[in-house]
Amino acid sequence: MAVPTFVPSARVPRSPDAPRASSSSGSLALVASLLGFAVITIDVTAVNIALPDIRATLHGGMAGLQWVVDAYTLMFAALMLSAGALADRAGARRAYALGVGVFTAASLACALAPGIGALIAARVAQGAGAAIVMPASLSLIRQAYDDPRRRARAIALWTVGGSVSVAVGPVLGGVLTEAAGWRSVFLLNLPVGALILVLLARVARSPRRPAAVDLGGQVTAVLALAGLAFAVIEGGHMGWTSAPVVAGFGVAVVCAVAFHRVEKRHPAPMVPLSLLRQRQVGVALAVGFAVNAGFYGVTFLLGLYYQQLRGMSGVAAGLMFVPLAAIITGTNLVSPRAAERFGRRTVIVLGQAVLALAMFALVPLDADTPLWLVLVLLVPTGLGGAFAVPALTAQLLDSVPGERAGTASGMLNSLRQTGGAMSVALFGALIAGGGDGGVGGGFSLSGMHDGLVVAGLVLCATTALAAWMLPRD
Question: Does pTM surpass 0.85?
Fold first, then answer.
């Protein structure tokens, strides 16, 4: 499932040798950026609804479904740290075209995958393409609009487009899966990707700027996250003390230590360790991780709950997410005003507290809970995360020097995606190995309840952390 909101990269001063885009070129750049953001968002939400059909066709088991989600999310999270530098070195238009090309080709590979392993490998490539698309799309908008007001409106449209995609994705995924099977969810990306490339051909060329690429840091980050995800996902199936799981945790620890050393010695690290030592930055990253862990965990669980436990069709399950997406979109618009009136710290703490309450409120769900009550209980889920994140973003960017703003926002996005990936890994392990034997086609209701309690407790901890360590406005 897509994140409730996305943190835009910091504004970068226009290069003096950058070509001045025409009005038509700017409009085409905006349309291309909107389409790219929409397609990578819709793909995630649509795939969540298609998971039961994928399982029935490819026989991958719960662990396979977890990897279908996390292979994408982990690459997205890890490569986000250095994708901005790639966009600077290659130029926004070229980097965006590369990302769209990789994502589209990987989508075709997903649609043609003969087995669960091939699908997971293609999802890794999709995540890599999406990580390039995200920052490059914003850079493309920055290049296309010199006027700050027009640029602000363009970025607002870009953000709203992502929120709308959150609502469209589950419904579209359900319709496509019911009508033509899960492969059609990926095939839909092909014409959209081709259209984006056609539009880019008419967009003004982007300037290139020297930017260091931290290859060692990038490789160790990917390996650390992959090792951790493997250990958490497979721990619920193989046993937490099995040799492969212990080895996965070992790889994660070793690579995390290596990442720290690489970043400490690199002249231009993608994660400056000095930022992590700042109290407000550390708190913001922890909160971002927890908020996405709760949100991703709930949407992953509910997509399976609706279909495997309640027996709902893909279309019906997708429609159940529309009110949630509408609440998120509306709350995103209200949050900045609330932060101005009551202070960011208050909004950040309150948003997390509401989201924690939402986790505990969903614990009593079972196969007979009225659907209207499920929708009511989801209201605080949409309110909490969408209320906290905009204020959290502003708090983070104001706590770092201007030249570090882009790096800080990239770190926040990466940690938020990582939180989502880890929640899918843990919650999937819990619902596959719960004590009730896995009712509903392998879906453990007790495991779902355990996952929600874990998410609620994590959010309670970060709520207290934010209340204690963030400065009063």
Answer: no
